[in-house]
């Protein structure tokens, strides 16, 4: 898949207030019940091979198969009765789409979602199964933001942005809160938490939660090579837009630039940004299959890929990676399994 | 794979006492820490399609990737110091092998395991990775029981049987205890629990735990067609041996006859036995991949297969299936994904 390089529409008349740890705590209360408190899973054999203790936060077991339900439900649970009646609009390559569609069904709102024509078939089908209307756009020639904003304006509907929204960031931040809570319960000191990064909602929310609860733990964003805008922005101390033309199998992580709000929250709280190629991502998918018995989609595997590729020091450390989603078409998954080979070299 | 039709060696001088609910409770205490209290997972979309509430007990997330660790660890944790020094012997097509190997490593005993020459490569490799010695036998021409008993006798080592052992049955029964505990916590009334059945250790232990804690819930064993010895035995009220010649992809469920002890525990507590063909098992594997983001091996998918095939009434009911293990070679898994197609018809 290729990048989406259309300029984002300006979206706020006034810049929204960044979320706080208290907002993440409130989100956790709202999500208690509708969402899954996902487990940290590990494999002693994998720990042996990597010479570290690796804990994987299994967001593939989250409702809708990815963490995106958290932010979407947190935002939609705050809709007024009038807003619910008018419905919501969103745009997404697939996981935010399913999160919004499932949340809308729970709160009783209609949802219309703009998805790219080349979105994974499973993501499109499931978004429809939750009852949302799907409208397609062309990544190369159309701006999804403009189309969604126009429709929301026409209907008076709420536009649920995938990451530039304090409630969405706070919802995703519950991932970090759960990691901190489980680490405390298990008596584990985490050296680092690695988080896949697209627009930066999960990275920002998790970095906020961990910085406030476990300040000794370093949090890193992980992006596909060629789409490491968060890494470059963190290094430069200002939002940087990547050059176009990159390709990656990570359909959910193809953003060219961090969000203004997500970057404001992440800066100073993320220890840095890592980048991995598709080869490491494919190895990570097979590792998750063979050692953890979980299904992870390419975009959901990049944090583990960074560990496998030794983009971070491993020896003797305790690392946590977020497996963000598992919505992958069987054709892709079987191709990766068949071509990668097993056991790993 | 074909059946193992060698006559089992007589194994006990006196018949062992069947386990009680108290034994399962003690096993749960021993397993608290070493084992994973595995989650019940579900998918609202799958529930919609099946017109029931389906809860899947994710034993694929258990240590060693299958429930077999429970029984093995429960047995090995009771070894005396002398017994640990002399090591243990076992035979298994693969999941009991890994369970015994991992448990032996934890308690500090050596382990020698007899495995069939055609065991899945992943199961053999992981058994070795846990530090066990693997010896191969030929299903068609050799008796694994006799070979294992001879070696155990020669060494003075403890033979850890895969199901004809009260401690192993009690360990597997913690699956039932956890299901009952989670159902209570979630306020769910379970209409039925479906359990994959080979020699009957898990079926017997789960039936015992559920009968004593949730007597209104019916427990069913599920076997591959052609290997439904438990179903036939339950119907006849006495242990029945199936005729040979059957074939099934379920490598862990090819036993020709229930164990004497497992049948004694299961009889009167199992509501009946169901049987499914490989076609339904393959559909179940793809369903678990697509709707639950979990990896389940063929033998681990038969309980869900019985639900998909409507071998049990679904409409409006709450059903629990145990996904017993996820140790499947990537070649098999990718072949199933690629050939089954998705979405399901």
What does this structure look like?
The structure is a homodimer of 345-residue chains. Chain A has two domains: 222 residues, Rossmann fold; 91 residues, Rossmann fold. In chain A, 43% of the residues lie in helices and 14% in strands. A six-stranded mixed β-sheet of chain A has the order 1-2-10-7-8-9, with helices on both faces. In chain A, strand 7, helix 9 and strand 8 form a beta-alpha-beta unit. In chain A, helix 5 packs parallel to helix 6, helix 8 crosses helix 9 and helix 9 runs parallel beside helix 11. The radius of gyration of chain A is 19 Å and the shape is globular. Chains A and B meet through helix 2, helix 6, helix 12 and helix 14 of A and helix 2, helix 6, helix 12 and helix 14 of B.
Number of strands of chain A: 10
CATH level-1 class of the largest domain in chain A? Alpha Beta
String of helices and strands of chain A: HEHEHHEHEHEHEHEHEHHEHHEH
| Spatial ordering of strands, largest sheet of chain A | 1-2-10-7-8-9
Q: What is this structure's SSE topology?
A:
2 copies of one chain form a homodimer.
Chain A: H1 21-31, E1 40-41, H2 44-50, E2 53-58, H3 68-76, H4 81-86, E3 88-91, H5 95-107, E4 111-116, H6 121-129, E5 133-137, H7 144-155, E6 158-159, H8 166-186, E7 192-196, H9 201-213, E8 218-224, H10 229-236, H11 260-266, E9 270-276, H12 278-292, H13 302-308, E10 318-323, H14 330-340
Parallel strand pairs in A: 2-10, 3-4, 3-6, 4-5, 7-8, 7-10, 8-9
Antiparallel strand pairs in A: 1-2
């Amino acid at each position: 898949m290729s990048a989406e390089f259309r300029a984002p529409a300006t979206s706020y008349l006034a810049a929204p207030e960044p979320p706080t740890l208290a907002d993440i705590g409130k989100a956790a209360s709202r999500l208690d019940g509708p969402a899954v408190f996902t487990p940290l899973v590990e494999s002693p054999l994998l720990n042996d091979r990597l010479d570290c203790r690796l804990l994987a936060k299994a967001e593939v077991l989250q409702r809708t198969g990815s963490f995106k339900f958290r932010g979407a439900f947190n935002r939609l649970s705050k809709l007024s009765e009038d807003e619910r009646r008018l419905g919501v609009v969103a745009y997404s390559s697939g996981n935010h789409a399913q999160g919004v569609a499932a949340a809308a069904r729970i709160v009783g709102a209609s949802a219309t979602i703009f998805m790219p024509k080349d979105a994974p078939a499973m993501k499109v089908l499931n978004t429809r199964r939750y009852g949302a209307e799907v409208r397609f756009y062309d990544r190369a020639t159309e701006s999804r933001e403009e189309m969604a904003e126009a429709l929301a304006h026409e209907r008076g509907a709420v536009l649920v942005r995938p990451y530039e929204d304090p409630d969405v960031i706070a919802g995703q931040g519950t991932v970090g809160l759960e990691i901190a809570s489980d680490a405390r319960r298990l008596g584990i000191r985490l050296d680092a938490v690695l988080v896949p990064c697209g627009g930066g909602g999960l990275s920002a929310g998790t970095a906020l939660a961990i910085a406030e609860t476990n300040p000794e733990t370093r949090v890193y964003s992980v992006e596909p090579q060629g789409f490491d805008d968060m890494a470059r922005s963190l290094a430069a101390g200002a939002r940087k837009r990547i050059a176009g033309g990159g390709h990656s199998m990570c359909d959910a992580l193809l953003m060219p630039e961090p969000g203004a709000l997500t970057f404001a929250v992440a800066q100073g709280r993320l220890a840095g940004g890592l980048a991995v190629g598709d080869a490491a991502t494919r190895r990570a998918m097979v590792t998750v299959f063979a050692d953890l018995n979980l299904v992870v989609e390419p975009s959901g595997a990049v944090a583990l890929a960074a560990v496998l590729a030794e983009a971070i020091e491993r020896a003797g450390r305790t690392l946590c990676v977020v497996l963000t989603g598992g919505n992958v078409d069987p054709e892709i998954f079987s191709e990766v399994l068949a071509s990668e080979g097993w056991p790993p070299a």
